[in-house]
């Protein structure tokens, strides 16, 4: 693979998974200034290699067409390592379509999408998906009805849904428990996932999305259907994640401006499949751009890194 820097160690490594020894070696590279933590990935067995990737996404003149109508685009958009993006817009704006492109679930009608240094359509998407963590209510329906919370998280190491004959070691189990603890749901490890509250399911999904140590985290409306307490608890945890320099680049899709967590660095505002504005979050979430996107006069206020909006 091009632009790769190999470490002088050998280890048994499955794609998308790591061991304490290899992670320690990666940290040494970070501390020496030779590698950014969010830019590495283990790529094959028996040799530990790191691929330097600064651009997580590169969208060039991307269009998605259904029938005779363009439902998204043309769009030009880049996401770089360490950035925290939010995609915002009214219903039918193209947010879900854009997220599907990001998750390698669909391909563009025209234009090019480059993900983690690879052109979409020219690589095995199943290899890339272990490098992308994703949460979406659409996936909840796919979990087996009797799946326990611990297995919901563990199976993300293989990018599969439903535990079958995979082999997990102590490192996998320890990481899953640590993630559940960080999201405040460690005590639910033995519970059946389908019996959890909406707020608990959201937090377990985020733990799952982080299990494979991804380079990118996609969160599809993470605070939807939560009550006030559940929403604020989740947003605080996402704020803590955004503040972690070792956390992956993040893209959050939401309908509501008040669900944008503190620490968000960039915003992409869509309407009718077209980009209204993109860039630094405070330059995008303005009265003028929000009014343009939603078709009515909107006043935006910010306080302590949070945003609020109302019609005027």
SSE topology:
Layout: E1 4-6, H1 20-31, E2 49-51, E3 55-66, E4 69-80, E5 84-88, H2 95-102, E6 110-115, E7 118-119, H3 125-128, E8 132-135, H4 137-140, H5 149-154, H6 170-182, H7 198-210, E9 216-220, H8 228-243, E10 249-254, E11 266-271, E12 274-280, H9 281-284, H10 287-294, E13 298-303, E14 306-311
Parallel strand pairs: 5-10, 5-11, 8-9, 9-10
Antiparallel strand pairs: 1-2, 3-4, 3-6, 6-7, 11-12, 13-14
Helix pairs in contact: 6-7
How would you describe the overall organization of this protein?
The protein is an alpha/beta fold and 312 residues long. It has two domains: 4-51, no CATH class; 55-311, Rossmann fold, CATH 3.40.50. It has helices at residues 20-31, 95-102, 125-128, 137-140, 149-154, 170-182, 198-210, 228-243, 281-284, 287-294; strands at 4-6, 49-51, 55-66, 69-80, 84-88, 110-115, 118-119, 132-135, 216-220, 249-254, 266-271, 274-280, 298-303, 306-311. The protein has a six-stranded mixed beta sheet, with helices on both faces. Helix 8 (228-243) links the parallel strand 9 (216-220) and strand 10 (249-254). The longest helix is centred in the C-terminal third of the chain and has 16 residues, at 228-243. It is globular, with a radius of gyration of 20 Å. The protein starts with a strand and ends with a strand.
